[in-house]
Amino acid sequence: MAVAAPSTRRRGGAPPKWVPAVLPVVLLALWEVAGQAGGSVYLPPLSRTLGVFAETWFPDVVVHDVLPSLGRFAAGFLLAAVIGIVLGLAIGMSRTLDDYLRPTLEFLRALPAVAVLPVAVFVLGLGTSMRISVIVFGVVFPVLVNAAAGARSVRPERVETARMFGLTRFAIARRVVLPSALPMISAGLRVALPIALIMMVVSELVGGQNGLGFYLTYQQQNFDIPAMFAAVIVLGVLGNLLNALYAAVERRALHWARHA
Amino acid sequence: MTAVVDPQVAVSRAARPAGRGRRLGRAGLRGVVFVVGLVLALQVITTVIGSRYFPQPTAIAAALVDQLADGALGVALLSTLGSALAGLVLATVVGVVAGLLLGSSPWTFAIVRWVVEFLRPLPSVALVPFAILLFGVGSTTTILAAFYASLWPVLFNTLYGVRDADPVAVDSARTFGLSRVQVLRRVVLPLALPNVLTGVRVASAIALVLTITVELLTAAGGVGYFISFMQAAIRTPEMYAGVLVVGVLGYLIALGVQALERRMLFWNRRGDA
């Protein structure tokens, strides 16, 4: 099939491997120079921003803010994954359930998760349970929808065969439907990952006591711009790390599904 | 994966027309039955037992009608919708142009690659406090936040669409003497359109999320502020009415983008799935 490579790719050859490193270095250098040249409170030099890490982050901020954030992130993500997968498989396996629940779920899925934040604050107060449930609300629907779609697309022969061998509905769900739906579920989890991170930050922006989101707004209100940038950098690195981590887990766990 | 499922889809689609209307009818009826049942159950529970946290659905409905008649909710709604749409349109224009450029030029892509790949997974809300400092409280901040967050899905989907564009079609167009820009506009963009619209669909949800987040944080009007104001004032029915309205807004935006997709992609089989 691959007769002709795209014409654009032939011209001039592929760029060398070092090319992507140029712009980040230039930008970081510009940041430092422009910051040193001064003029704006809004642009402290890079070195001062990095200095924040050396001065206050280890171990204070890490223990006080980063770890609680990560804990709530993990708890919310895992809880939502379990709920989403179980409900999604049930809905995908049962036409009746699907018919009854669909409009309600479509509505809840279209509801931006941040809009329930005030409701969560009202009902659950300003504690950990509020923050985790906001993350759960944001994550559960992408997972659920994908799990249901995955369960619906399982080949009927597989389910029939399993039933012929006398497996119960629960056993079929666990042994046949779940494995078949796993690639779809995984796609849903990948979509949900950045949402969980966003909800983690947002949930800490209001009435927070700790966490990266709290740190961010606290420094903003203190007008400590270098510290605020430090938090933004950490969140960027965190987002990238989580992505890479998830990709690695997915590659290991779903290597058998890659023929598709 | 789609390749595996495809034969079945084709079969079920061919077999569908006769039974489809009836099935849709019954499914729709069941959906309505569940919603009505849920609301009735909530009404009974809140009336009999009462709840500090959830008012009677009739009270929410009354608050909704009140606030809509009063105009407060309508104004907030329009402001939210305006900011989200402005951000989305801006993101679509910039994202498509940038995606076309990055997708068709490996050098440009190589140059900006690390920066773009670092920025994309950065949770966009992290930049909101800084944006508030820079641009103050107002629609500029809201629109820019919505724009920034919804840019990435459009950009990356366009980029992938451009890369997947059939090289034979591109080369043929070149052979017929079209310039590079013409090829991008007439051949590559139409081929990438399904991907572009997928990006816009994802982006539309994100634009709304960011708009509401900024409204919650800055008290700059909009439904986000409406909800948090009502929460602070412990006017619970109004708060739930606000959430309801946001849900409807999200649903309508999703439907709108879906309709747009169907209209623009009537020629594409993936589009009507």
From TrEMBL, chain A:
- Write out the annotated subcellular location: Cell membrane
Q: Which Pfam families match?
A: BPD_transp_1
User: Which ranges carry the ABC transmembrane type-1 domain?
Assistant: 66-246
Top-level taxonomic group? Bacteria
* Record keywords: Cell membrane, Membrane, Transmembrane, Transmembrane helix, Transport
Question: From which residue to which does any coiled coil extend?
Answer: none
Nucleotidyltransferase among the record's keywords?
A: no
Extract the InterPro entries matched here.
MetI-like, MetI-like_sf
Kindly indicate where the leader peptide sits in this chain: none
State the membrane topology.
Multi-pass membrane protein
- Which residue spans traverse the membrane? 73-94, 106-126, 132-155, 176-202, 225-249
Indicate the family of this protein: Belongs to the binding-protein-dependent transport system permease family.
Q: What protein am I looking at?
A: ABC transporter permease
Source organism of the structure = Pseudonocardia xishanensis
Q: What is the lineage of its organism?
A: Bacteria, Bacillati, Actinomycetota, Actinomycetes, Pseudonocardiales
From TrEMBL, chain B:
All copies of the ABC transmembrane type-1 domain together span: 77-261
Q: Name one Pfam family in it.
A: BPD_transp_1
Q: Which SUPFAM superfamilies match?
A: MetI-like
Q: Where this protein primarily resides, as one coarse class?
A: membrane
Q: Which UniProt keywords apply?
A: Cell membrane, Membrane, Transmembrane, Transmembrane helix, Transport
Entry membrane topology: Multi-pass membrane protein
Subcellular localization, as worded in the UniProt entry: Cell membrane
Q: Where are the bilayer-spanning segments?
A: 32-54, 74-103, 124-149, 202-227, 239-260
Q: Does the keyword Transmembrane apply?
A: yes
The Swiss-Prot or TrEMBL record describes its family as follows: Belongs to the binding-protein-dependent transport system permease family.
User: What is the name of the protein in this document?
Assistant: ABC transporter permease
Species in which this protein is naturally found: Pseudonocardia xishanensis
